[in-house]
Write a structure and sequence with these properties.
Blueprint: E1 2-4, E2 20-21, E3 28-29, H1 30-38, E4 45-48, H2 56-64, E5 69-72, H3 81-91, E6 96-101, H4 109-117, E7 124-130, E8 137-139, E9 143-147, H5 151-159, E10 174-177, H6 179-183, H7 198-212
Length: 216
């Protein structure tokens, strides 16, 4: 399990992953909600970030639970999430790596399990979502599964100056998961909801309140 948590949170105005999400009594940092959602699926946790200190308590807590965990810094500074994927694949003990953004609090474990079931014969299983304005399908590389076999292709693209997260996909075997297939597990595509702005944060609070009250 790779959680990409090195973004600068420019639109939020502060480091969002450590902000408490939820009602006062149940509020926990956003990153901890992401961890809790995928904890049953993970054999290890890798956090892609270049400042390990804020993660010390979380890493220690996971290790106390018997779950290997560490922060993996980029080997290609400034190269964005693709460098984070490279760092995660380089450090992973497992062949299969689920890479998700650290600001996705509604990841659907059933959908993730379905993606994993599609992996035989492929190096990458990646969802496509309807673009919010055009409706055209767009790949979502920050909620996708990658094999260790991707590492060489990712490294080659980074060495060539590539920064696009999906730039290496032509070099590996890819299974695209279409929107209609995703809807069977997540009709509203809530798994892919990113908390990027204060408005997104308010929406996440409302969605979480609905989940806790049994409305969803």
């Amino acid at each position: 399990m790779l959680i990409l948590a090195g973004g600068r949170s420019r639109r939020m105005g502060q480091d969002k992953i450590w902000l408490p999400l939820g009602a006062d009594a149940d509020a926990v940092p956003l990153i901890e909600r992401v961890v809790a959602r995928v904890r049953p699926l993970a054999d290890e946790f890798l956090f892609s970030a270049n400042a390990p200190e804020p993660f010390a308590a979380l890493v220690s807590s996971l290790r106390d639970q018997g779950v290997p965990a560490q922060v993996v810094p980029d080997r290609y500074p400034g190269a964005g999430p693709l460098a984070g994927l490279h760092a995660g694949l380089s450090a992973a003990r497992c062949d299969l790596l689920l890479a998700v953004a650290g600001d996705m609090p509604f990841i659907n474990p059933a959908l993730v399990a379905h993606l994993a079931a599609l992996m035989p014969g492929f190096d990458v299983v990646i969802p496509e979502l309807p673009h919010p304005r055009t409706g055209e399908p767009v790949k979502e590389p920050l909620h996708a599964l990658y094999r260790q076999s991707c590492l060489e292709a990712v490294a080659a693209r980074l060495a060539a100056g590539e920064r696009q997260m999906v730039g290496f996909l032509p070099d590996v075997r890819v299974r695209i998961v279409a929107p209609d297939e995703i809807r069977d597990f997540d009709p509203d595509f809530r798994s892919f909801f990113n908390v990027n702005t204060p408005e997104d944060w308010d929406a996440a609070e409302q969605m979480l309140a609905g989940v806790l009250s049994g409305e969803n």
